[in-house]
Every structure is written in structure tokens, then in C-alpha cells.
Amino acid sequence: MISRLLTLIAVFLCLLVGNCWLVEAKKQRNAPHEHRGKLSPYSPGPFDVLKLGPKDEEALSQDKAVMKQIPGEGGKGNEGGRAICIQDVNAPKDAVWNQILDIDHYVGKVNKLKECKNYYVKKNGDGTSTIKTKMVVGVIPGYSYEYYCDHIYSPAHDSVTWTLDYDKMSDFDDVAGHWHLEDHPTKPGCTRVFYACDIKFKRAVPGPVMNFLTKSALKQATTWVKKESESKPQACVPKEYAVAFVATPRPKC
Predict the structure, then answer these.
(1) What percentage of the chain reaches a pLDDT higher than 90?
(2) Whose CA is closest to 56, among 13, 32, 86?
(3) Mean pLDDT lowest among 19-23, 91-95, 176-180, 228-232
(4) 79 phi-psi bin (left φ>0, alpha ψ -120 to 50, beta other)
(5) CA neighbours closer than 13 Å in the CB half-sphere of residue 179
(6) pLDDT classification of 3: cutoffs 50, 70, 90
(7) Cβ neighbours of residue 24 under 8 Å, at least 6 residues apart?
């Protein structure tokens, strides 16, 4: 009787917070996702429609992150526009890539990230690399999300783009993201970082969860990359992703 009562209480609490671990445990993560993509994926390379004005340049020169809105690629869930975060980093691109591509060690650097582990890495014939990663982010009690990302590192475009791995079941309905690096326009040896990540939820979530995952996380991402890159400015692109055909000679590691 007591055991049954405790079970009923647990079920009630799960329903109350909106995220029942008893239900989550039954998810077949190796089953295909419910669809093959709703958000428009990003293309590698610069954000061509993004324009920075004098006030933006002034803020960047003061080591501040700048948030900009660009038009969405209509028809797949981002008609209202997409948010981009820009940050200047006082370190060369190789040092920045060293941090971004070291995905297995994001925990402890990325706020609220509880687990992050690559489960598939492959260097492709066109010079790109495919990196598939399991991530678990816990925002507030009762709202923890496990999801699987399919990254493509494109060194020729100085970009990483990603979507969900649609061959696995994720807690987010969809994800689309983009890192892009450029040499700083006026400061040699420095980097301008561009970051975007769109998230589509399967159901309504509380305001604090929505705000953290869609707004705060953008600035926090470029902030941790700036901090870690500037602490190791001599770091190189991880050897498993290094390429021989680059426009500018890279330092040997």
C-alpha cells in the first residue's frame, strides 16, 4: 500500500514539473526522430545579410558581445528572424577553433551542460569532418534535455554548422546552429566570432527556460569561447580536424 502511494506521489510530481524521468527512461534513443528537420539549416560561410554599424564596432572594441537579428529562411520554422551573437577574441583563429572543436570537453565551460560526448567522428573526402555528439543540458529542476547533434566542420569556410542527428530521438523538436570565424578586420592575430543556434521545442516551456536556451545561451557561448581562447592563444586546431590545404600557413603543434 505504501509502495503504491509513493508511486502515485512520484507520478503526480512528474506531471507537476512537466518532465517525468519515469517516462524519459523509456525513450528509445536509437529510434529515429519524429521528423527529418523543421528548422532551416545554416549554410557554412559568412552571414552575408549581417551588417555591423559604428555602434556595433564600438561595442566589440570594448570586448562586449553584440546581438543582431537577421531575416529567417522562411517556410521551416524561423520566419520571424534569427539571432546572431558576435564577439571579438584577442587570439588567432586556430586558438578559437581549438576550443570550439574540443566538444568532448565542453562540460565545465558551457553553463548548465551536464554531459557532452562525441559518439561518431569522421573525416570526409571533401575536407569536411562530421562530428555527432550527445548533449544533456539541465536548465532548472524538471527541465533537462537530452539531444543529439550532427555537426559538419568546414575548414574551407571557417565554419561549423549543425542540426539534430535525426537518426536518434532528441528531447528538442529541432535544432540548427552555426559557428563562423573571420580574421579581425583591423587587429592582426585576432578573431571575430559569429554564433547562432535556433531551438524548436516540442511543447510550451516556462519563460526562464525559453530565455536561457534561446537568448542567454547565445552570449554565454561566445563569452566562454573568448575566455578559453585568450587563455591559450598558441593553441592549434585539433590534429584530427587539421587540413593541409589552407590559405594561410598554420603553426606547427
Answers:
(1) 74
(2) 86
(3) 19-23
(4) alpha
(5) 22
(6) very low
(7) 146, 171
Residue with cell 552575408: 48
pLDDT tops 70 at residue 119: yes
Cα separation of 250 and 12, whole Å? 58
Q: Picking from 65-79, 95-109, 124-138, 147-161, which range would have the lowest pLDDT averaged per residue?
A: 65-79
Amino acid code (one letter) for 10: A
What gap in Å lies between CA 208 and CA 131, rounded to an integer? 30
Task: Give residue for cell 536509437.
Answer: 30
Number of other residues whose CB lies within 10 A of the CB of residue 250: 15
Taking residue 135's Cβ as centre, other Cβ atoms within 10 Å add up to 21
- The secondary structure of the chain as a DSSP string is -HHHHHHHHHHHHHHHHT--HHHHTT--TTSPPSSS-SSPPPPSS--TT----HHHHHHHHTT--EEEEE---TTSS-TT-EEEEEEEESS-HHHHHHHHT-GGG-BTTBTTEEEEEEEEEEE-TTS-EEEEEEEEEEEETTEEEEEEEEEEEEGGGTEEEEEE-TTS--SSSEEEEEEEEEE-SSSTT-EEEEEEEEEE-SS---HHHHHIIIIIHHHHHHHHHHHHHHH-TT----GGG--S--SSPPPP-
Residue among 200, 140, 136, 138 nearest 17 (CA): 140
Q: Which pairs count as long-range contacts for 79-82, CB under 8 Å and 24+ apart, including other chains?
A: 82/196, 82/198
Q: Give CA–CA dist 194/228, Å, rounded.
A: 16
